[in-house]
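Action item from last week, closing it out:
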Amino acid sequence: MSTIQNKTFSNEVIVVDGNRYEVCSFTNCRLVYQGGELPSFVRCEFEVVNIQLEDSAFNTLKYLTGLYSGGLSEAVEDTLTVVERGKPEEPVGVSQYTALATGTNYAQMALWSIVVIGIGIALIAALVYGYMTYPTNEVLEENEPLKAEIPLDVMPALPDELGDSYDATRADQLEALNSYSWVNEENGIISMPIDDAIDLVLEQGPPTWSPEEGE
């Protein structure tokens, strides 16, 4: 650090980084600080003096300006209040992000990559094994039928003319439903067309007889 004593500065632009000024006078000057080693002023006088920040120091100014416009105006004002008091405190130790948090832990990234690749290979191997063990397409041998044949002796015997037998049975049932016939002539029980029976029940009510007569 250079020490400057008992000197008068007038109408000058002075880069103050790393200098110590003792009993100096500054009139109509511009003091430029570029962010290097802090200067010091001991029993100096100032008249019409401007402060200019450059390089790293100017970056600090831009940083505070961005914070102020980004919603941290109170925090920036608190910082300026510390400047007004003239007694800045030493910064508290700041926790630095580890390489893991910043994405530069290449060893762990490589480990996770190996694990993911291993899982992918295992899945592919399982699919190939399943396809080879349980194929979706079955290859038939020569003269092998597509379906297993059922022996005729285990199949129920059906009439040769099943349709005719069905029609005859249906005709007999329709005739029984639409004609009169004796069911029990001794007890006077007859079978009558179903429509007539419904009308008779609606007109006279259901018939009543003893269990012996019903038999």
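Closing note: The mean pLDDT is 80.
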